[in-house]
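Table S2 (continued). Query chain:
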Amino acid sequence: MALITAKLSIAEAFKPVNLHLYFPTDLPESVGNRVKGVITLLHGLHGDCSDWFAMTAACRYAADNGYILIAPSAENSFYNDMAHGSPWYAILTESLPEQLRRIYNIPAAREVNYIAGLSMGGYGALRIGLARPKRYAAAGSFSGVVDMRAALPAIASPKSLIRPVLEAVFGEQLVLPADADVFTLAERAARLEPDQRPRLWLSCGRQDTDVDFSLYGQNKKLASHLTGLGLDFEFKEWDGVHEWNFWDRSLAEFIGFIQGSDYAARKRRDWA
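Corresponding output:
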């Protein structure tokens, strides 16, 4: 295998962009000795590019199935162009992919590119995957903050410690642009031809709730909305909270989803 820690110079960021990459260079014969695809993994709030590789078996799951992994750091940007900060949406959808193709020869074809993330990164994966359906065949959200329009007023009271973080992204009035709302983006995707729509996979723990801010409730709401739109998606729930054991399993489940295999079931038997 090849595990690379990179620091790329991207003009729009006004700072180096850090990322981790995994290449399955020693694929076993059972996998087919060829790269099957690329999964971009997005971190959560206060996280960075090292989280997925340090806290889960992401590299082993990728090795089992022949996937390149790309995990960029994007600060607390919610993967948007920040009101007071770097344009992370543009960086992650334009500048960074171009550099990765040029430097590492990362496959660019839509049918082999996928994006997923946890919490803030779950929102980011859906936001990017739905907004760029020509780039990604599927997007996965694990315990994602999927209803940002409802979440912003719930978590950003004037005395909230997170309010300055959100103001840096969405401005002092905390206005969520229409093109950054997952529900609106899903409606737009539903109007595309069926073969142009990204497939979606959602997971959330049943105990991932809070009096004012229930991620489980948000994900149930989004699943209902997606059902009404007729999009190709799966929503998986099981007992769990907002932590790495849940996200580790979610990644294995997502890999099974994108390749239509029983990989997640086999992993569950291993864990049992």
